[in-house]
Design brief:
single chain; mainly alpha; about 85% helix; globular
Length: about 220
């Protein structure tokens, strides 16, 4: 009964926030962000343990895998565009990985973070399952890494449209690669609003970022730390 209640309540909150987002269409009202705030607030107010929530929440969580796999369809449809622009895609992904590492190291230096937190933050721009494994390998905190990944994705999805506007980013390739390589799955979810080409670029960027990041980030830590 608890599992059904949690699933239904979570889905209702999300669809309600999606309606609000569709009506007002403001980046700060991004459904994943607003839904998370509401659900977390309810858990805190009523002092509901996370473990209790996940009795039903785990079933929603298990849908993440099939959802990611479904992204293969727009990738297949836009395969010629992807092959044609592979240099731009790889350059964008490489730049995103480099900038992500540089920002984390700079932040760690300014805030005097312990090495464990630094290792936890490094894979923040890679999709959660991969980021958790990378964090574990480089002696970070996998659970906390997942939290940072989610926060990064939400921030990317919210400020992404503003950056597109300010920097006059208009092409599907630029939008997709920038969001997919920095804001992973949540950012790719945002790209559904920009058409199939942009979504395909975001999907392939997210996937390649995860693959390359799982190789480059541990090597970077071994060499420099």
């Amino acid at each position: 009964m608890i599992a059904i209640t949690v699933c239904v309540a979570t889905l209702l909150v999300f669809f309600l926030m999606k309606k609000v987002y569709t009506h007002f269409y403001h980046p700060i009202l991004f459904p994943v962000f607003t839904s998370a705030i509401i659900i977390v607030s309810v858990l805190l107010v009523f002092q509901i343990p996370y473990e209790t929530y996940m009795i039903g929440g785990q079933w929603i969580d298990r849908l993440l895998g099939p959802t990611v796999v479904s992204l293969a369809l727009p990738l297949y449809r836009q395969r010629e565009l992807i092959i044609k622009n592979y240099k731009a895609i790889l350059t964008g992904i490489g730049s995103a990985l480099f900038c992500g590492i540089a920002i984390v190291i700079a932040l760690a230096g300014v805030l005097h973070l312990k090495n464990e937190y630094l290792m936890t933050l490094i894979p923040k721009s890679i999709t959660s399952p991969v980021a958790m494994q990378i964090s574990k390998v480089i002696d970070g905190n996998p659970t906390l890494a997942a939290v940072f990944v989610i926060i990064t994705g939400i921030i990317g999805a919210i400020i992404g449209p503003f950056i597109y506007k300010i920097c006059k980013i208009e092409t599907p390739i630029a939008k997709g690669v920038s969001m997919g390589s920095s804001a992973h799955g949540i950012g790719v979810g945002k790209l559904t609003e920009y058409g199939e080409k942009t979504l395909s670029m975001g999907s392939v960027s997210m996937t390649l970022t995860a693959v390359l990041g799982s190789i480059i980030l541990p090597l970077f830590v071994i060499i420099f730390f």
